[in-house]
């Protein structure tokens, strides 16, 4: 039995459906992420798990027990909010110890457990520091330690890395992974940042307009998106309108604005279907040399480039008007805007998406 079961949950605000018939199962010990754009319902779902919102329909079960009617403070769940919600007049030690004091535990036990929690998040030397004296990453770790002090069955994290700068976010991602692994507590993480979800999660649920589009492992979400929304939302991808001309066990033959593309087979695709051919930038080759070794090779013109340090991102317009993104390591000669280039990809790269 799953640790957390969300069964056919719906939540409406007037005529607006924040969530519509959502069902999910989260296993004990998972780092599970709710990923989606602003307004997709992910924070509403997190708040219902925590007990701050009530479903209009459906149920939420923890260890097989329906949470309906159980107030937030009675649930074995803790939430770490985006702004950390630390008490500014309390030291790091006192912030972390606060839940134990509210539970009226003996002073020696509070002291011992709070010291251990500080050690778990590598802040033993900051026990007497106030929030204003801590960096953003240190404040985040205090909030995490406070959330974990009672060893909850679930720790909910609501955009809890969003306030950090890029480098600190990367450092905290590694710390979160290590902390979750070492403690074995189930994390449910809300974010709109795709790279963050891919880096942290055991599994991801992609939400859109109050519905679950796909639940899968990060590599599957990225490499085998279920539909156009997931493909377009998670990572960079080029999509070209295409019609299926031939469907076999080994390949698809697509016609895309006058050019023929050989693509991997797709389930239930038949001749006459219309959809898109989608391909990731790192799957595309670009150069001046002949690419005849690739089944798919065309001429194009560089429309724009974006230098990113280790790589450059090119946007290349094919002769049929389709635009493709290409990533090229900055290890040799690059290309300039308006250069005519050859562009190509393997016959088993990319995917056909009908929905």
Characterize this entry briefly:
The chain has 355 residues and is an alpha+beta fold. It has helices at 42-50, 92-102, 107-120, 136-148, 166-183, 194-200, 218-223, 228-233; strands at residues 4-13, 16-26, 31-35, 57-62, 65-66, 77-80, 154-158, 186-191, 203-208, 211-216, 238-247, 252-256, 259-263, 274-279, 285-287, 296-307, 311-318, 323-329, 340-345, 351-353.
What is the number of beta strands? 20
Gyration radius from CA atoms, angstroms = 25 Å
Reported by name, the CATH topology of the largest domain is: Rossmann fold
CATH architectural category of the largest domain? 3-Layer(aba) Sandwich
Instruction: Find the structural class using helix and strand composition.
Output: alpha+beta
Write out the strand line-up for the largest beta sheet, numbering strands in chain order: 6-7-8-3-9-10
Inertia-based shape: globular
Stretches with pLDDT under 50, minimum 5 residues? none
CATH class of the largest domain: Alpha Beta
Number of helices: 8
Helix and strand arrangement:
Layout: E1 4-13, E2 16-26, E3 31-35, H1 42-50, E4 57-62, E5 65-66, E6 77-80, H2 92-102, H3 107-120, H4 136-148, E7 154-158, H5 166-183, E8 186-191, H6 194-200, E9 203-208, E10 211-216, H7 218-223, H8 228-233, E11 238-247, E12 252-256, E13 259-263, E14 274-279, E15 285-287, E16 296-307, E17 311-318, E18 323-329, E19 340-345, E20 351-353
Parallel strand pairs: 3-8, 3-9, 6-7, 7-8
Antiparallel strand pairs: 1-2, 1-4, 4-5, 9-10, 11-12, 11-14, 12-13, 14-20, 15-19, 16-17, 16-19, 17-18
Helix pairs in contact: 2-3, 2-4, 3-4
């Amino acid at each position: 039995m799953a640790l957390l079961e969300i069964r056919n949950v719906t939540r409406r605000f007037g005529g607006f459906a924040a969530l519509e018939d959502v069902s999910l199962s989260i296993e004990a010990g998972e780092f599970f992420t709710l990923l989606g754009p602003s307004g997709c319902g992910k924070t509403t779902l997190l708040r219902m798990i925590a007990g701050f919102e009530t479903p209009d329909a459906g149920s939420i079960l923890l260890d097989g027990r329906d949470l309906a009617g159980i107030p937030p403070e009675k649930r074995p769940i803790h939430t770490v909010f985006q702004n950390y919600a630390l008490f500014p007049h309390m030291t790091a030690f006192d912030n972390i110890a606060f839940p134990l004091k509210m539970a009226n535990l003996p002073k020696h036990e509070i002291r011992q457990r709070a010291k251990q929690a500080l050690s778990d998040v590598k802040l033993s030397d900051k026990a007497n520091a106030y929030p204003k004296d801590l960096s953003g990453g240190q404040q985040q770790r205090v909030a995490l330690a406070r959330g974990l002090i009672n060893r909850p069955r679930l720790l909910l994290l609501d955009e809890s890395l969003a306030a950090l700068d890029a480098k600190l976010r990367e450092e905290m991602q590694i710390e979160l992974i290590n902390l979750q692994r070492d403690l074995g507590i189930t994390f449910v993480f809300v974010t709109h940042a795709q790279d963050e979800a891919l880096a942290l999660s055991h599994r991801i649920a992609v939400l859109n307009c109050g519905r679950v589009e796909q639940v899968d492992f990060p590599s599957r979400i990225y490499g085998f998106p279920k539909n156009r929304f997931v493909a377009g939302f998670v990572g960079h991808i080029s999509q070209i309108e295409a019609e299926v001309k031939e469907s076999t066990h080994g390949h698809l033959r697509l016609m895309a604005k006058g050019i023929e593309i050989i693509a991997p087979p797709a389930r239930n695709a038949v001749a006459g279907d219309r959809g898109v051919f989608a391909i990731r930038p790192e799957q595309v080759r670009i150069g001046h040399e002949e690419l005849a070794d690739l089944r798919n090779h065309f001429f194009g013109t560089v429309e724009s480039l974006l230098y990113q340090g280790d790589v450059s991102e090119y946007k290349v317009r094919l002769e049929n008007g389709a635009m493709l993104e290409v990533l090229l390591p900055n290890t040799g000669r690059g290309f300039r805007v308006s250069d005519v280039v050859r562009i190509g990809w393997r016959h088993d790269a990319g995917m056909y998406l009908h929905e």
